[in-house]
Design goal:
binds zinc ion, Rossmann fold, single chain, 8-stranded mixed sheet, 39% helix
């Protein structure tokens, strides 16, 4: 009896990540014991996917006024003392000693982004305007309890599509609303997930009043002011988009209240709700990093906040949820294997022609920047081979080249789109012509990403060895 696949099976099938129980034959050891509990190993397909996704996210944010950052993974513990992480979050951090000094692996990107802001205003004074927005595809490490660690869904090493916005209080509602617009754009245009009242719920996560000063940093007055403010912003968003919202006490981050965005991935009864995006409101870091003082001097107002936000949250977690709910089907732009070109061989006489045509077409697709694999099959085994591809690397498109196709001057392309495969024929008097025709089919699938990011990353690869 076959068991239902889970996201790590899909991740391995698509060559995105290795299952931790994969035993490396020559070493006689499994990947998980070498990497450590909760540290995923992304493999070749995952490398392509992550690079493409990062390029899209960087361009998307840069076009919307965010500055782009890339900050260290490890730093002196002094930075995290200043930010309060050592006081409130140390149990979740990897902390170690070097040369008699304490160092930490970053669990969050915020302190670095704030330091970038302070460094800019130190040098350029009030020429640096607010809101000041910094974005990073930021890798963080957190010591999650070992019992809760699971595959990509909850790992100890993960990557946030993270940004911090330093804003005056008077602009904060506008900032939060535009962050929510960005979230909707990414989900719908990049991942084909529509955000509407039936798929999205907002949740306001508040402090537990009895734990302010112990689990939650700051004073009761500060929390009340911030929570009232965020409630107002949440109501504005909920009514603008017609969304439902709930409130949850004790679920806030230690530095401030937040809006969590719960999104249903997958369709119909199989769909499942995930907590993905987040917008957090922070009055603690501005105080600790003396941003109140800097803002008063430079902008004439102390009414300033830091907003932490992530649109999909963690790339690993989002990917795990997406693979689970869409059974390993990724959007064309992110698919590790975009094309499988199959030469259908039958009868010796024409086989060489078929092979040459299919190989040239495959190479032309790689030259255009696509990830493609070349494989061979026969008419009688064709459907079985396609089933194998579908249950394995799941190419976004399968291209069939056989004797009949060459003689007719057309090849068949089967593209996965909107939940099913669609077959179409393209004119193909020669391999380069066929590659041009296939490229224009692909361009249509790339269009929504181009629209929001101003570009489409084409990271080519010959992945024939995976077929
Ligand atoms: Zn942050």
């Amino acid at each position: 009896m076959s068991q239902e696949k889970d996201h790590m099976d899909y991740a391995q099938d698509l060559d995105i990540a290795a299952r931790p129980d994969l035993t490396i034959s020559v070493l006689g050891t499994d990947v998980g014991s070498l990497l450590g509990h909760g540290i995923p190993l992304f493999t070749i397909g995952g490398g392509y996917l992550r690079s493409a996704l990062s390029q899209i996210l960087v361009n998307f944010h840069a076009r919307r006024g965010y500055y782009i950052a890339e900050t260290p993974i490890v730093s002196s513990g002094a930075l995290f003392e200043l930010s309060g992480h050592m006081g409130y979050y140390k149990q979740n951090m990897f902390v170690f000693q070097v040369e008699g000094k304490e160092y930490a692996v970053k669990p969050m990107n915020c302190p670095f982004h704030i330091l970038i802001f302070l460094s800019e205003v130190t040098r350029h004074r009030n020429k640096v305007s607010l809101p000041f927005k910094v974005f990073e595809v930021g890798r963080v490490h957190r010591l999650e309890p070992s019992g809760s660690v699971y595959g990509l869904l909850r790992s100890r090493s993960f990557t946030q599509d993270d940004a911090h916005i330093i804003t005056l209080g008077k602009d904060a509602v506008n900032v939060i609303t535009s962050v929510f617009d960005e979230m909707i754009t990414i989900y719908s245009k990049l991942f084909n997930v529509e955000m509407n009242p039936s798929t999205v719920t907002l949740r306001l996560s508040l402090s537990d009043k009895s734990k302010i000063g112990t689990d939650f940093m700051g004073t009761k007055d500060e929390w009340e002011k911030a929570e009232d403010f965020l409630r107002g912003a949440l109501e504005a968003i909920a009514s603008k988009y017609g969304l439902r919202y709930t409130a949850a006490e004790g679920e806030a981050a230690f530095y401030g209240p937040k809006i969590d965005v719960l999104v249903k991935l997958g369709s119909g009864q199989e769909g499942k709700e995930w907590q993905l995006g987040t917008i957090q409101f922070d009055f603690n870091l501005p105080r600790r990093f003396k941003i109140f003082d800097a803002a008063k001097e430079l902008y004439g107002s102390e009414d300033v906040y830091i907003i932490h936000r992530a649109l999909i949250g963690s790339i690993e977690r989002f990917l795990g949820a997406y693979l689970d709910n869409y059974k390993g089907r990724l959007p064309f732009v992110l698919a590790p294997l975009q094309f499988a070109v199959l030469a259908i061989k039958a009868g010796d006489e024409f086989d060489k022609r078929v092979e040459d045509f299919a190989l040239s077409l495959h190479r032309a697709l790689v030259a255009k920047g696509f990830r493609s694999g070349y494989g061979e099959t026969t008419r009688t085994s064709l459907s079985g081979d396609v089933r194998l591809l579908e249950s394995g690397p799941k190419p976004a498109a399968i291209v069939y080249v056989g004797r009949r196709e060459i003689e007719k001057g057309s090849v068949t392309v089967s593209i996965y789109e909107g939940g099913s495969r669609r077959q179409t024929s393209v004119n193909a008097s020669d391999p380069l012509g066929a590659a041009d025709a296939i490229e224009s089919l692909a361009s249509r699938l790339e269009e929504p990403v181009k629209e929001i990011a101003g570009m489409v990353p084409r990271i080519p690869g010959d992945l024939s060895y995976q077929l």
